[in-house]
Amino acid sequence: FTKTDATTGEELEGAKLQIIDQDGNIVEEFLHFIFDNVQQAMEDEN
């Protein structure tokens, strides 16, 4: 998942993503970073 600037199309870091169940409870929450190796390391931990 990525967050991009609507005007320039450039990728922005710091997107806060949440997975919310049907009752409104946050199931999972994480931040997106541009650095692929950090994102990969976070995925490897799970």
TrEMBL record:
Residues 1-27 form the SpaA-like prealbumin fold domain. InterPro entries: Ig-like_fold, SpaA_PFL_dom_1. It comes from the Bacteria. This is SpaA-like prealbumin fold domain-containing protein. It comes from Candidatus Avoscillospira avistercoris. The lineage of its organism: Bacteria, Bacillati, Bacillota, Clostridia, Eubacteriales.
